[in-house]
Design a protein that fits this description.
Order of helices and strands: HHHEHEHEHEHEHE
Number of strands: 6
Largest sheet: 6 strands, parallel
Structural class: alpha/beta
Strand content: 5-15%
CATH superfamily: Thiamin diphosphate (ThDP)-binding fold, Pyr/PP domains
CATH architecture: 3-Layer(aba) Sandwich
Length: about 190
Amino acid sequence: MTDAQTLTARPPAATGRENAQHAQSAAEALVQAFVDRGFTHFTGVPCSLLKGVFRVLESGEGPAGTVSYLPAPREDSALGVASGLSAAGAKPVVLMQNSGLGYSLNVLTSLNLIYDLHVPLIVSWRGHDGNDAVEHDIIGRELLNLLDVFGLRHTVFDPSDPHGSVERCLAAAEDGRTTPVLIVKEGI
């Protein structure tokens, strides 16, 4: 086993009582799933629906111990940083709230989509059910349509199957010609 494999190898699955004591949270499993696929950096702007993921990344422990986390002041800045990392050969992931996707559309359309810098986006889906703060109603209602208009392939995260969700998300963009988006509806 190489050093890189050692760093990203998943521990054996726990069972019974061990599983209850050492179960990964959905947020830890989400980060681990990207680490298992060779992703090296995470950047983004905190969102309450993604707070568990940010806690994992900020801790620097567990699956976050093998990646770099770069906080960003705005979503478009996070996408710019991730794009530079991608162009340099790293494998970054961007986290953002769906309202931040609006800020990021210029970067996506004038850089990422033109130059095939397709970094995965983890986007929280505020307002998807109409029961959020009023400022999330329109973007929440129209998120999937917006992603479709820009040709961004999307997968809705299943907290009971984090690894499968990440695999489906990344598989939808394996042709390297689109940006994969993992949508998180509920807080993790």
